[in-house]
TrEMBL record:
Lineage: Bacteria, Bacillati, Actinomycetota, Actinomycetes, Micrococcales
Protein name per Swiss-Prot or TrEMBL: Probable cytosol aminopeptidase
Pfam families attached to this UniProt entry: Peptidase_M17 (PF00883), Peptidase_M17_N (PF02789)
Enzyme active site: K264, R338
GO cellular component assignments: cytoplasm
UniProt-listed SUPFAM superfamilies: Macro domain-like, Zn-dependent exopeptidases
Reaction equations catalysed: Release of an N-terminal amino acid, preferentially leucine, but not glutamic or aspartic acids; Release of an N-terminal amino acid, Xaa-|-Yaa-, in which Xaa is preferably Leu, but may be other amino acids including Pro although not Arg or Lys, and Yaa may be Pro. Amino acid amides and methyl esters are also readily hydrolyzed, but rates on arylamides are exceedingly low
Length: 497
């Protein structure tokens, strides 16, 4: 199981039946009496210097409070849902070797139990991996398979179902991103999309290389032609009866990115199986929407290819013809994500959805701009504000960036309608990519004067991976960033709420 089973309990804490306990505690440095019900615990906390600082974690020996192994984690001075989610995630991630852990939040936080359940489910994730450690080592570092969160009477079962679906979606993304490229070709990733949606009301269509050529998807074919493993395009359609809104999700699925003939340096190529994160995310989100029976139609497009060098590979200077007939001069074969996404955006636009969102590990420039925890957000229409509100509600870090018209001039090519990269100019690289994609978002009516379909571009190049230390509920490695925000965005119909 990729994450622990989450249960709720209204029993007095600590109840029997747990192998270990976790208490999330607010700042203790003030003059007040401290959290209610913890008087027997406070001397033990004082003895180890635990102050309740945010995400501070400690094991505590407090036999006067409970005979079960006990850990405490800090909520800081201003406890809110984000603090609870991070703190409980930290605790469940850190407190290993126990099968069942009971969790309590010693602070008044609106829907604190839900945030605690989210933190437990997300922090309890562990990738099965390929280590050959002894069983003894595995037992000592195993995370809980069951977490009991203490909640008030009448806690919302629907909210708990949403927590479980969100955690499962994040876990699916992390599992797929952690799978070595050797075992995840474009065809295998397409098969995974079929397999993981079986039993759900989701129609799946897969284009192989012959179907892609017949349909004119020149961007996906151009990126994938250098590989012995042909590309795929996958469409997943969840269309509940009576849905009044239609959201299209387009994900970049580069199963390995060498940079093509514009070959990456050796160090930059390590971890490039992660370049299919966007495709994994749109799969996970449409799957969660179906599980939760959201009354919104969601169509996900997974644009999948290997970007490899060979005698067949696209060369710098070659011109590709996109699915709508637009010609693109390829000036950098390592700017391949925008080429596969262009075809996906064209295909999504043809169905006239209310909103289009694309998700991609797109540009190193985004990491330079925003670091490794914020997702860069671009686009047009109220959908951008709607996504930012969803990100705020779910505690995801996101930042809006502009699409400057003066940079759009740099898209022009001498030999084609446009070019895919501004080689030699590092200024505004993430914005250039966003402007490139914008050209392929369809319009709401006939003619070039008609407004484009509301669109959000999410560049998760930095936020999709935690390359440093673990933090909050997030391990080192894939983060699943924007998955929970996208589920919330879909639930809101892509509208500002």
């Amino acid at each position: 199981m990729p994450h622990p089973e989450i249960e709720l309990s209204a029993a007095t804490f600590p109840a029997e039946g747990a192998d270990a306990l976790v208490i999330a505690i607010p700042d203790l440095t003030g003059d007040g009496p401290g959290p209610a019900g913890l008087a027997d615990l406070l001397p033990a906390l004082d003895a180890i210097g635990f102050t309740g600082a945010r995400n501070a974690f400690a094991r505590v020996y407090a036999p006067g409070f409970s005979d079960a192994p006990l850990a405490v984690v800090g909520l800081g001075r201003r406890p809110d849902a984000d603090a609870v989610r991070d703190a409980v995630g930290t605790a469940i991630r850190s407190l290993t070797g126990f099968d069942t852990i009971a969790v309590s939040v010693a602070a008044e936080v609106e829907d604190g139990w839900r945030a605690a359940a989210e933190g437990a489910a997300l922090g309890g994730y562990a990738f099965a991996g390929y280590k050959s450690d002894s069983q003894d080592k595995k037992d000592k570092r195993r995370r809980a398979s069951r977490v009991v969160v203490h909640a008030p009477e009448g806690a919302d079962d629907a909210a708990l179902a949403a927590v479980r679906a969100g955690a499962e979606a994040v876990a699916l993304v992390k599992d797929l991103v952690s799978t070595p490229a050797e075992w995840q070709s474009p065809a295998q990733l397409a098969d995974t999309a079929v397999e993981t949606t079986q039993g759900l009301p989701i129609d799946v269509t897969v284009w192989d290389e012959s179907a892609l050529a017949e349909a004119g998807f020149g961007g996906i074919l151009g990126v994938g032609k250098g590989s012995d493993r042909p590309p795929r395009l996958v469409r997943l359609d969840y269309a509940p009866a009576g849905a009044e809104r239609h959201i299209a999700l387009v994900g970049k699925g580069i199963t390995f990115d060498t940079g093509g003939l514009s070959l990456k340096p050796a160090a930059s190529m390590v971890g490039m199986q992660e370049d299919m994160t966007g495709a994994a995310e749109v799969l996970a989100v449409v799957r969660a929407a179906a599980q939760l029976e959201l009354p919104v139609r969601v169509t996900a497009w997974m644009c999948i290819a290997d970007n490899m060098p060979s005698g067949r590979a696209t060369r710098p200077g070659d011109v590709l013809v996109m699915a709508d007939g637009t010609t693109v001069e390829v000036t950098n074969t390592d700017a391949e994500g925008r080429l596969v996404l262009a075809d996906g955006l064209i295909a999504a636009s043809r169905e006239n959805p209310d909103v289009i969102v694309d998700v991609a590990t797109l540009t190193g420039a985004m990491i330079v701009a925003l670091g490794t925890r914020h997702t860069g957000v671009m686009g047009h229409g109220d959908a951008v504000d709607a996504f930012l509100r969803s990100a705020d509600r779910t505690g995801e870090l996101a930042w809006a960036l502009p699409l400057p018209e003066h940079i759009a001039e740099e898209l022009e090519s001498r030999v084609a309608d446009m070019r895919n990269a501004n080689v030699g100019n590092r200024a505004g690289g993430a914005l250039f990519a966003g402007l490139f994609l914008q050209r392929f978002v369809g319009r709401t009516g006939e003619g070039d004067d008609a407004p484009r379909i509301p669109w959000v571009h999410l560049d998760i190049a930095g936020s999709s991976m935690s390359t440093g230390s673990a933090f909050g509920f997030t391990d080192k490695g894939p983060t699943g960033a924007t998955v929970r925000a996208l589920i919330d965005f879909v639930a809101a119909g892509g509208e500002v709420r």
